[in-house]
From TrEMBL, chain A:
Pfam families tied to this protein: TctA (PF01970)
Source organism of the structure: Agrococcus terreus
Membrane spanning stretches: 20-49, 61-82, 109-135, 147-163, 170-187, 199-220, 323-342, 362-384, 396-413, 419-448, 469-492
Keywords in alphabetical order: Membrane, Transmembrane, Transmembrane helix
Domain DUF112: from-to ranges: 20-443
Protein name: DUF112 domain-containing protein
TrEMBL record, chain B:
Pfam family, one: TctC
Similarity remark: Belongs to the UPF0065 (bug) family.
Keyword set, alphabetical order: Signal
Source organism of the structure: Agrococcus terreus
CDD domains assigned to the protein according to its UniProt record, in alphabetical order: PBP2_Bug_TTT
Protein name as catalogued: C4-dicarboxylate ABC transporter substrate-binding protein
Matching InterPro entries: BUG (IPR005064), Bug_dom1 (IPR042100)
SUPFAM superfamilies for the chain: Periplasmic binding protein-like II (SSF53850)
Region forming the signal peptide: 1-27
Automatic annotation (TrEMBL), chain C:
Pfam families on file: TctB
Protein name as it appears in the record: DUF1468 domain-containing protein
Origin organism lineage: Bacteria, Bacillati, Actinomycetota, Actinomycetes, Micrococcales
Coiled coil: none
Region feature (Disordered): 1-27
Species whose genome carries this gene: Agrococcus terreus
Chain ranges passing through the membrane: 33-51, 66-88, 152-179, 191-211
Key words, A-Z: Membrane, Transmembrane, Transmembrane helix
All copies of domain DUF1468, residue ranges: 34-214
Record InterPro entries: DUF1468
Compositional bias annotation for Low complexity: 1-25
Length: 510, 326, 226
């Protein structure tokens, strides 16, 4: 239990009054930036990083940890309340969360999301402290063939649950792939669909796509109804406590744990941050709800649908921290920024970090726990307060969302062109909504598509074009078998379902 | 009555805030002298290499008071050529410099960029570091010679991982192939977005060998996970216990340099002032620490010497890129 | 964009009074054909882009065109499938005689509003369970294209004006315009609120966090700053 002693020492270093103050400031700032649509946790870290530079290393790391997790706590808030998630990692939480908000249970949804974020993050951090070598090993056995298998698996598992009409789901996936292909092909250097415009060489930022489709799309969607149909349908006035009662705990706790189980392994490997595990967690809950016959899921909003993705998102963030520290491997843009920050203090994440800078690492790990704790304490009472946002007059609320969304897009790289792209994508988004084309597959395809392509081509490049390399390792074989089994089961279920439906219809005389 | 009171409060608050905010906006815009406010354009996203360099310099300039309010602006994209394009259009703006370096040379050539180093005013080259060729710790290749033999025997089966296409790693791989008697176009080069991913591709035995900055690999080399075969420096570097390519009889060397350029139309006085700022930065105690912390080699170079260096680098890179078939 | 507005205009042009069910469904079906057409057009554009792509020599297979061709194929197939489905549904609606009770579940799901899982669409309780006999797509007929167009125009105006007017003025103008469009009745008060929002963001992100927001024409107008 060497780690435990070290960690306790870390706590003793981190727990000073001034450090606690930094902790609280970081938590509030991180949450505040994370809440704004288009400004998720990555942007919170990028913007607030310089603030930490003036502090001593321990104070800086503590503030850093609370900003990092603060952004993650905050980015689902706007999604739940207004259907405009702050970041792509909050999309999955938005589905059920916003339904709960529309049902008048906004405070409950926010409370669940805060508890989920806390549990997921804490469990992941505990695992990082005690098992980081195992997490690191996971990352080193993964070659391109394994990553490709994983992306294929994620595609099927996610796409199957987020779109019920196959044709419409595929239309959306195709749009997402198209968006994801723009830019210079990293494998060969060929320009694809850039029209020779240098600003498109790096592709279309996923933030532009998310903000365009979700935030701008939502504003336009509301614009189309606010004068005729009273907008979005009435928000029910938020009531109720953010705390969960016993029955709700019984529903939510397994979902928290399932979400965490999805999140932890994904943090260690570079498969696009926390979107994949959050969607997988959401998909699992949806399947389970269908099996249970839970009528709330997809209508009034089910607590599990918020609990699992939120826990998964923060568990990913926690174990990503582990991979970052122990391997020096940035699995997301946020992690890449943090490497830069660590280096400011002469800390080089990697295999020798714990030996070389133990005096900094353990306080950092301790402050992760402290940050999560403070965030829970701050966010539970805040949940009721945030829910009051819905009391703001509708015209100010949506005008504000539009202004902040534009700020978020502009902040990516101070480019007006990004604003135009977000606007165009927002128009596409409102058209898609009008024709009931699902939005989520667009984002999934835009994130996973390029990844799948790169890994496939990389695997074939290493094997010099031999396709058997794709199924050469036990890991890939297991994944593909699992995939085949999932598909077989859902086809059987679908057939049985269809037969049952036909039977019912036959019984009802037309 | 209540309504007008509300209006008065909102109006009052609005005018106060507008005044403060407009003051800030007014001050943040407008041109200043290099000594009052110097903008450094980092042509990469926050967290990238050039961004780190710009922020290190900003920190030192501010603490030493060389520049009252140095600031960093990120203009990412297309290996830095988007930032270069913007600065090239800034005419005689005299309070701004662009961070540049070896990767941009490759970017200009590979992207067929319409602007090049002829379209800006070179100020200085400041710091270099070198790239290193590594193999996994349990690789059969113990020395550079053995690896070169394997590469010559089977270029397709000897995949080399490194940074983005046209970057220094890729150029080095091409030069190494050329020296080993292999057509550079036949190199099985795997491009990764960053050094971290190159490390994992080594650890998972995806690639036979990897190229990246020495800093990216340093800890992995010390811990024995990776074995360093050769360093890309022209001469042995103090403090780095890796023999150079040249020492081992393979004529390959290339530095990952970092430097600063200014808009094209600045007057000789402004150019002299910017050079003076760089000299003060270079002479400062803080900059020594930055160099030591990042393991950067001091490589100060200014004026015509730097201009010639840029010309040579561009020509050399263009040749290697052509050989690589990009 | 043209697909959506044209379809919606078609709909808006129709009388608001109760119409025969069939007519309404036909308009829905025809509107969706625009989507199918758009998907096919995108497939065509991607195909031409892929065919004319400049591929560097000596690129190992599968090259940079491999994946785009797959996507082109996917889009072409689903575009045709969507078109066929739309035509088929419209016909089915006729054949069924328009009584919602006889619609298949699939059809209802595809029509959208009671599909509880086409994500991120607002599914308010009212939408989710349409009253018996109510056409589930009825909402679409009430789509207010004019307000959407004006909102898009306001956002476009913001993008145009940002560098020229600077953040404070253009963001305040955007906020004010949207508040008006979204039904605020107090334009004068809105000016104050808009200025407060824009100024607070300028102070928090520009001054506080060092995000470079454009100053525009405010650049250097306050004399005591330089």
């Amino acid at each position: 239990m060497d780690q435990l002693t070290h960690l306790l020492e870390g706590f003793s270093v981190a727990l000073t009054p001034s450090n606690l103050l930094f902790l609280v400031i970081g938590a509030v700032l991180g949450t505040a930036v994370g809440v704004l649509p288009g400004l998720g946790s990555a942007m919170a870290v990028a913007l607030l990083l310089p603030v930490t530079f003036s502090l001593d290393p321990t104070g800086a790391f503590i503030m850093f940890a609370s900003i990092y997790f603060g952004g993650l706590f905050g980015d689902s808030t706007a999604g739940i309340l207004l259907n405009t998630p702050g970041n792509s990692s909050a999309i999955a939480t938005t589905f059920e969360g916003h339904r709960m908000a529309k049902d008048g249970r906004a405070a409950k949804a926010l409370g669940t999301s805060a508890i989920g974020a806390f549990l997921g993050g804490t469990i992941a951090c505990v695992l990082v402290v005690f098992f980081s070598p195992a997490i690191v090993r996971l990352a080193t056995v993964m070659g391109p063939a394994e990553y490709f298998a994983l992306t294929v698996f994620a595609f099927v598992a996610i796409a199957a649950v987020v779109a019920d009409s196959i044709v419409r789901g595929l239309v959306s996936l195709g749009l997402g792939f198209a968006v994801g292909m723009v830019g210079i092909d990293a494998m060969s250097g060929a320009e694809r669909f850039t029209g020779g415009t240098p600003v498109l060489f790096d592709g279309i930022s996923i933030i532009v796509v998310t903000v365009g489709l979700l935030a701008i799309g939502e504003v336009l969607h509301v614009a189309g109804r606010i004068r005729t149909a009273g907008g979005n349908g009435p928000f029910l006035s938020p009531k109720g406590s953010p705390l969960l009662n016993r029955r709700e705990w019984r529903q939510a706790l397994p979902a928290f744990l399932r979400g965490t189980a999805f999140g932890v392994p994904f943090g260690a490997i570079p498969v696009g941050g926390s979107e994949v595990p959050t969607f997988l967690a959401y998909g699992t809950e949806k399947r389970l709800a269908r099996r249970r016959g839970d009528a709330d899921f997809g209508t009034r909003g089910a607590i599990q649908g918020v609990a699992a993705p939120e826990a998964a998102g923060n568990a990913t963030a926690g174990s990503a921290m582990g991979a970052l520290l122990a391997l020096g491997l940035p699995t997301s843009a946020t992690a890449a920024m943090m490497i830069a920050a660590f280096q400011q203090y002469g800390m080089q994440p990697g295999p020798l970090l714990f030996e070389r800078s133990g005096d900094l690492v353990w306080p950092l790990l301790a402050s992760l726990f402290l940050g999560l704790g403070i965030l829970l304490i701050i966010n539970l009472p805040f949940a009721a307060l945030w829910a009051r946002l819905l009391v703001i007059p509708r015209h100010y609320l949506y005008a504000g969302i539009a202004v902040v969304a534009m700020l978020g897009v502009y902040a990516i790289s101070s480019r007006v062109l990004d604003l135009w792209m977000a606007l165009a994508i927002g128009v596409v988004g409102v058209i898609m909504r009008h024709f009931s084309l699902p939005i989520a597959p667009v984002l999934i395809a835009a994130i996973l598509g390029p990844m799948a392509e790169t890994q496939l081509r990389r695997a074939l490049a290493v094997s010099e074009g031999d396709p058997t390399a794709l199924v050469a390792s036990p890991f890939t074989i297991v994944l593909y078998l699992l995939l085949a089994a999932t598909v077989a089961v859902s086809v059987v279920q679908h057939l049985r379902h269809a037969r049952a439906e036909r039977a019912t219809k036959a019984r009802v005389p037309a | 009555m209540r309504l007008s009171a509300q209006g008065a409060i909102v109006g009052g608050l609005a005018s106060v805030l507008l005044l403060v905010a407009a003051t800030h906006a007014s001050a943040s815009g407008g041109e200043a002298t290099p000594r009052t406010r110097l903008t450094m354009v980092a042509p990469a996203a926050p967290g990238g290499g050039w961004d780190g360099f710009a922020r290190e310099a900003q920190q030192v300039l501010r603490t030493d008071g060389t520049v009252a309010a140095p600031q960093v602006v990120n203009v990412p994209g297309a290996s830095g050529t988007i930032g270069l394009g913007q600065v090239a259009q800034m005419g005689d703006r005299h309070d701004l410099m662009l961070v540049t370096g070896g990767v941009m040379v490759g970017g200009i050539v590979v992207n067929g960029s319409s602007v090049g180093f002829d379209d800006v005013t070179p100020i200085a080259r400041l710091a270099d570091d070198y790239n290193v060729l590594v193999v996994p710790g349990d690789s059969p290749h113990e020395t550079l010679d053995e690896f070169v033999e394997a590469l010559a025997a089977d270029p397709g089966g000897t995949a080399i991982a490194g940074g983005s296409l046209g970057g220094i790693d890729h150029l080095l791989a091409g030069m190494l192939a050329g020296e080993s008697g292999v057509d550079p176009a036949d190199v099985n080069y795997l491009a990764y977005p960053g050094g971290g991913e190159v490390v994992t591709s080594m650890l998972s035995h995806t690639a036979e060998a990897g190229l990246s900055g020495y800093n990216e690999f340093r800890d992995q080399i010390e811990s024995g996970n990776l074995r360093a075969l050769a360093l890309s420096a022209p001469e042995p570097v103090e403090g780095i216990d890796v023999p150079t390519f040249v020492e081992q009889g393979v004529d390959v060397s290339m530095a990952n340099w970092r430097g600063l350029v200014a808009p094209p139309g600045i007057s000789p006085e402004v150019e002299a002032e910017l050079q003076a700022i760089v000299r003060e930065l270079h002479a400062s105690e803080g900059w020594r620490e930055v160099l030591a912390r990042n393991d950067w080699e001091d490589s100060l170079m200014m004026g015509e010497e730097f201009e010639r260096f840029l010309e040579d680098e561009t020509a050399r890179t263009a040749q290697v890129v052509a050989e690589l078939g990009l | 964009m043209t697909g959506g507005t044209t379809a919606a205009r078609e709909r808006a042009a129709q009388p608001q009074a109760p119409r025969p069910q069939q007519a309404r469904r036909w308009s829905t079906g025809r509107g969706e054909l625009w989507v199918a057409g758009g998907v096919l057009a995108l497939a065509g554009a991607l195909a031409s882009g892929t065919a004319t792509m400049e591929v560097p020599d000596g690129v190992a297979a599968p090259g940079p065109q491999f994946f785009p061709w797959l996507v082109v194929g996917l889009l072409a197939v689903v575009g045709v499938a969507l078109g066929a489905q739309v035509l088929l549904q419209a016909r089915r609606a006729h054949a069924d005689g328009g009584a919602p009770a006889t619609m298949s579940n699939d059809l209802l799901e595809d029509l959208g509003a009671i599909d509880g899982t086409s994500e991120l669409r607002i599914v308010s309780p009212a939408d989710a369970a349409p009253a018996p006999g109510e056409d589930p797509e009825d909402d679409g007929a009430r789509l207010d294209v004019r307000t959407i167009a004006l909102t898009v125009a306001a956002l476009a105006g913001f993008a145009l004006a940002l560098t020229w007017l600077g953040w404070i003025l253009s963001a305040a103008a955007l906020f004010w315009a949207l508040a008006r469009l979204f039904g605020s009745g107090r334009p004068l008060l809105d000016v104050g609120v808009a200025v407060i929002v824009a100024s607070v963001i300028q102070l928090a992100f520009g001054a506080g966090l060092g995000l470079p927001l454009p100053a525009g024409i405010l650049e250097g107008v306050v004399p005591w700053t330089s």
